[in-house]
Amino acid sequence: MNEAKKEFMDAAIQMAIEGVRSGQGGPFGAVVVKDGVIVGRGNNRVTSTNDPTAHAEVVAIRDACNNLGTFQLEGCEIYTSCEPCPMCLGAIYWARPSKLYYGCNKHDAAEINFDDDFIYKEIAIDNEKRKIPFIPYMRDEALASFKAWTDKDDRIAY
To answer: Could you tell me if residue 92 is left (phi over 0), alpha (psi between -120 and 50 degrees) or otherwise beta?
Structure first.
């Protein structure tokens, strides 16, 4: 076993346990590592911050990006105590780390009532058939923001 990887996964697991013990949220923790150093930490804080997006991976990504002064995590690795949910998976892909390691899997999470399967199923369904209706509205007006982006010469692509 790689000792450094073990140390980083242990840190993610400890973030999860500390988050539970402190009452900050669910049993999830994550760290972001760059060049062998932890540059971001996070534990689930959904219930303590009333923020449904405050999952461990998202909190750790925000912390790492803030600490590194960047919006992408190229060259970084993420260690998380559990396989990411669909929202976190999206955030991870947008952050572009080079690798992700996870401890528990989504089946382990489902056994303690953190089941993301319904979200995966909803993603595959047409908008009009989802449990929460997704209704197109004012597309022509909304396209003005895309035109503003396209016309902006100094935009930062991501």
So the answer is: alpha
| Overall average pLDDT of the 6-15 stretch | 98
Catalytic residues: 57
Stated pTM of the model: 0.94
- Classify residue 127 by its DSSP letter: G
Name, in order, each residue with C-beta under 8 angstroms of 141's C-beta and a sequence gap of 6 or more: none
C-alpha 133/C-alpha 116 separation (Å) is: 19
* pLDDT tens digit sequence for 122-141: 999 999 899 999 999 999 99
Q: Would you call 140 helix, strand, or coil by DSSP?
A: helix
Instruction: Report the greatest alpha carbon distance in the chain.
Output: 56
